[in-house]
């Protein structure tokens, strides 16, 4: 979602207003959890790749955490920090690979262990500790505590200037601390919930060793952000915003509305791939609840025309993404001519996970799907981006939405992808197929709401499969299509489970309503695939 030039936060009030802990990512699948845990205790944290040049840091952190990682520090080509990080003179905590990195840079005392250690272990704090930073790190902790390990390498000695302050049966160097400097390393992972007191340790590092002011909260964030945006835009300019009715763009739009009032122009594109009554409902709710005037641009013929005859999912996604760009280009021109004002900025609802994905040390992962990308507008339209949510996780966005008084149902809406029904009608998309998918989806979601399942599920939809099956209706043979129902639960949409809470009676009702009410369908399947190996959407 975010282009490479926006990897770091750019001009932001955040660092000026909140003490920041920097997490340097060595590619662990848990790296972002460190950031999460800090935010949960009201400490602002940001993650950057471990290769970040310290001289180019856009802010001065109050402390640095080195994450875990899949590599071995002694391997050729293994990632290493810019040694200048030690000259920042701020506390450092190394986690797993991070600990090994500290040991490697200070005496090369790391090698492959005889035994790999995955799972639970128990740390015993050294008796009679006098190390000031270790005492601060263990503040409020019992002498023995459970932790979760995941490593194959280990320290085979102490790095210069360090001492052991905690050990486990298998790891004599489970917790080490520099004798005088505030630098610590731990072999276990405090960020995972399997380390029950891990959050306390992270808190101790941030508050007792880095002495951060733990003031990060949505309340504190929002006023500053609105103020920053207002100043950035100035008193005369207009801003165009792509608004879908989804949580992210709705909250972002509300922030802009607060900042610049009617100089914010919300645009929703009716791409013909929306759900039943969606454009009208979004127009009403945004107007009614948020006082935002939304222009719905009907571009359905354009989208559906361009999709004619295309069956390849990636081609479909690219066509949809590009067509969005054309529509926004035209809209920006229209606003310029109607207001005779300047339109320099485009609002986008980019979230922190989108940013994290693009900064991870692991580098660009293989493209599974091309997400339709309003960020593509950047190059084409010469518009600058305003991304008020680019530092936030989804649950923080929801919190912010509630704080801004956005109606509950809008804040807790399931996500709906930009390409919409275009990727839920599998294979070729045309009006007739869209109509079938739209009706089936409406029945499924209405029943989910009626049965009180909506908030137990992270996302649900019906998809139309491009296959036909034989059936019998009113004594007549039918040869019709198949609807697949999908409902998932997930924390972050990176992995997901299929929802296993539907009652049999519910499934019977949905299936019977779809077959009876939607012409062209004679079978209904329920998708019981998790992600991975499946994905949430089917295309
Ligand atoms: N039909 C649409 N009209 C205008 N903009 C759209 C449309 N669909 C998507 N977008 C833009 O694409 C962005 C990304 O879509 P995405 O679905 O990830 O976010 P969202 O719709 O705001 O929230 P949610 O993830 O809850 O659906 C949106 O924030 C919005 O800016
Ligand atoms: O705005 C979007 N534009 C897209 O192109 C897109 N593709 C998938 N999704 C949503 O992303 C989440 C994960 O979906 P997948 O497991 O199918 O990748 C799910 O919530 C999907 O609905 C999209 N959202
Ligand atoms: N989880 C980690 O950081 C693992 C670090 C290193 N690759 C090891 O196996 O010890
Ligand atoms: Mg959406």
Automatic annotation (TrEMBL):
Q: Which residues bind ATP?
A: 244-250
The record's gene field reads gua2
Which Pfam families does the record match to this protein?
GATase (PF00117), GMP_synt_C (PF00958)
Record GO biological process? GMP biosynthetic process
Q: What is its EC number?
A: 6.3.5.2
Q: Which organism is it from?
A: Schizosaccharomyces japonicus (strain yFS275 / FY16936) (Fission yeast)
Record InterPro entries:
Class_I_gatase-like, GATASE, GMP_synth_C, GMP_synth_GATase, GMP_synthase, GMPS_ATP_PPase_dom, Rossmann-like_a/b/a_fold
GO CC, one annotated term: cytosol
Q: What is this protein called?
A: GMP synthase [glutamine-hydrolyzing]
Query: Which is an annotated GO molecular function term of this record?
Result: ATP binding
**Where is the protein found, in the record's own terms?**
Cytoplasm, Cytosol
Domain called GMPS ATP-PPase: residue spans? 216-413
Record's keyword terms, sorted: ATP-binding, Glutamine amidotransferase, GMP biosynthesis, Ligase, Nucleotide-binding, Purine biosynthesis
């Amino acid at each position: 979602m975010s282009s490479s030039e926006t990897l770091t936060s750019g001009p932001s009030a955040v660092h000026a207003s909140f003490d920041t802990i920097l997490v340097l990512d060595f590619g662990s699948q848990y790296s972002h959890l460190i950031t999460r845990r800090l935010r949960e205790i009201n400490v602002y944290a940001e993650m950057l790749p471990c290769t970040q040049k310290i001289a180019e840091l856009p802010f001065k952190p109050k402390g640095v955490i080195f994450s875990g990682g899949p590599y071995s520090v002694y391997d050729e080509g293994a990632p290493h920090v810019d040694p200048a990080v030690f000259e920042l003179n701020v506390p450092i905590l190394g986690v797993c690979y991070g600990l090994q990195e500290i040991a490697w840079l200070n005496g090369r005392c790391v090698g492959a262990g005889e035994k790999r250690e995955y799972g639970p272990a128990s740390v015993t704090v050294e008796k009679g500790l006098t190390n000031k930073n270790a005492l601060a790190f263990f503040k409020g902790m019992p002498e023995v505590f459970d932790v979760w390990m995941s490593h194959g390498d280990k320290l085979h000695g102490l790095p210069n200037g360090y001492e052991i302050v905690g050990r486990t049966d298998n790891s004599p160097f489970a917790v080490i601390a520099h004798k005088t400097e505030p630098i610590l390393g731990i072999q276990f992972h405090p960020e995972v919930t399997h380390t029950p007191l891990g959050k306390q340790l992270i808190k101790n590092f941030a508050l007792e060793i880095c002495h951060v002011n733990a003031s990060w909260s949505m309340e504190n964030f929002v006023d500053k952000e609105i103020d920053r945006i207002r100043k950035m835009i100035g008193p005369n300019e207009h801003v165009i915003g792509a608004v879908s009715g989804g949580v992210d763009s709705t909250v972002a739009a509300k922030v802009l509305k607060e900042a610049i009032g009617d100089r914010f122009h919300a645009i929703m594109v009716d791409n013909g791939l929306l759900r039943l009554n969606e454009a009208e409902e979004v127009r009403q709710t945004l107007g009614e609840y948020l006082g935002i005037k939304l222009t719905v641009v009907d571009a359905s013929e354009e989208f559906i025309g361009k999709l004619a005859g295309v069956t390849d999912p990636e081609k479909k996604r690219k066509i949809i993404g590009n067509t969005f760009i054309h529509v926004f280009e035209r809209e920006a021109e229209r606003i310029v001519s109607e207001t005779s004002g300047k339109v320099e900025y485009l609002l986008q609802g980019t979230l922190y996970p989108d940013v994290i994905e693009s900064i991870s040390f692991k580098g660009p992962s293989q493209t599974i799907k091309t997400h339709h990308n309003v960020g593509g507008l950047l190059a084409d339209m010469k518009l600058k981006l305003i991304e008020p949510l680019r530092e936030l996780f989804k649950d923080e966005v929801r919190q912010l939405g509630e704080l801004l008084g956005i109606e509950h149902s809008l804040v807790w809406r399931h996500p709906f992808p930009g390409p919409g029904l275009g990727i839920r009608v599998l294979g070729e998309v045309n009006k007739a197929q869209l109509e079938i998918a739209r009706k089936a989806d409406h029945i499924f979601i209405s029943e989910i709401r009626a049965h009180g399942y909506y908030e137990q599920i992270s996302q649900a939809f019906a998809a139309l499969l491009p296959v036909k099956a034989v059936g019998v209706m009113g004594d007549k043979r039918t040869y019709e299509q198949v609807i697949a129902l999908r409902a998932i639960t997930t924390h972050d949409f990176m992995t997901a489970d299929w929802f296993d809470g539907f009652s049999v009676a519910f499934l019977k009702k949905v299936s019977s309503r779809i077959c009876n009410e939607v012409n062209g369908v004679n079978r209904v399947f329920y998708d019981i695939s998790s992600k991975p190996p499946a994905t949430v959407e089917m295309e």
